[in-house]
Design a protein that fits this description.
By secondary structure, the protein is α+β, with helices and mostly antiparallel strands. It has three helices and 13 strands.
């Protein structure tokens, strides 16, 4: 990850628009943060999470529904521009997904898949911004460590609710109404649901 803001002024949205399409641009505390597109292990984990959640929670098939789940939505939270790997809004807060380029309504859940290029900013500055804007749940998924760390927002800060890892199924909040296949997140060469 590189920082590309100028010393003379805070980054603005036009700085993101000028970036090449093969990178992700974010504005964090006035600084332009430029990250490479996700590598295969990172992409596999985020795709598997989306696949696990889409049916039962986004569409209500085999689960309770009640969520809008999106891959890499662009969030404009005041002056911050963030692009989490996945985000979800409870339908009572966002009944339908608007046809927009970015979202100014903070999500209820954010998932950041950690990589060497993004882990530091995800676990520090972005984590604080999500809390300040009322995000209730934050997942840190680490494909290298094969773990899902679940944080819930409390009055004084984030609290680690639980950590899941390895293989098998788990009930992971806030999506604990349906068992989640942890093993599907880790190996890009194994069929979903089978151990590598």
């Amino acid at each position: 990850m590189s920082s590309a803001s100028t010393k003379s002024r805070p980054a603005i949205y036009e700085d993101i628009l000028r970036l090449p399409e093969n990178v992700i641009g974010e504005i964090v505390d006035g600084e332009l943060i430029v990250s490479p597109r996700p590598a295969s292990r990172h992409a596999m984990a985020s795709s598997a999470i989306g696949g696990e959640l889409a049916g039962p929670f986004h569409r209500g098939r085999g689960g309770p529904g009640g969520w809008v789940i999106l891959f890499e939505p662009e969030l404009h939270l005041d002056a911050q521009v963030l692009v989490p790997d996945l985000a979800g809004w409870r339908r009572e807060r966002m009944a339908t997904c608007p046809d927009v380029a970015y979202f100014s309504l903070a999500p209820d859940w954010v998932c950041e898949v950690l990589s060497p290029a993004t882990a530091l900013i995800d676990r520090t500055r972005k984590q604080h911004i999500y809390r300040e804007h009322g995000v209730s749940w934050l997942w840190f998924v680490d494909p290298s460590a094969r773990t899902v760390e679940v944080l819930s927002r409390g009055e004084r800060g984030w609290m680690v609710t639980d950590t899941f890892g390895g293989e098998g199924e788990a009930l992971i909040p806030p999506f604990d109404a349906v068992a989640f296949d942890i093993g599907a997140l880790w190996d890009i060469n194994s069929p979903a649901g089978q151990a590598p």
